[in-house]
Fold this protein.
Amino acid sequence: MRRFWTVLATLATLSLTNCGYNAIQSNDEQVKSSWSEVLNQYQRRADLVPNLVNSVKGFAQQEKDVLLGVTNARAKVGSIQATPDLINDPGAFAKFQAAQGELSSALSRLLVVTENYPQLKSDALFRDLMAQLEGTENRITVARNRYIKAVQDYNVQIRSFPTNLTAMAFGYKEKPNFSVDNEKEISTAPKVDFTPSPAAPAK
């Protein structure tokens, strides 16, 4: 009897392997892992924002609209519950992407403003924060690209025969991916230029 159950278990395992079940599991885990890294890098950027805003505020208090825009965009990002389950909810994913895009745009406007303040650009704290921001933006780009590839592989697999039958049987559905809307703007790291302006007053 024991041998019968062993053979039956072996046949079941081979059946699941041939129908793509194990491959779906593997790709699903890859998507989850890639998404965790995306969240980690976006959180790193969000953590930099308060210090960056305070640094700019010390030299450019009159830029209230721009500073408020960054603060509000950061708050919107923080209000979204970026859980692992978010990648299974297209609507929630779209809101997450929109919020991150809004923060990217706000940060870009902030960088444009800083060009008018040579003393700010030469401030050691600001320079350090900008270096951290640039590095984080680069890591975000890498993490996003890995996630995009992982989702593409997963979605193609669960739409392909015969694994699509297995996916339907076990309830695996397509996962949302980053759209091409503003992809170039969102995924491009900020241009950081610490060269003093030619018009800067001599100290």
In short: DSSP finds eight helices and no strands in the chain. The chain has one domain: 41-187. Residues 114 and 136 are 19 Å apart (CA to CA). The helical segments are 2-18, 21-57, 64-79, 90-114, 118-121, 124-159, 163-170, 183-187.
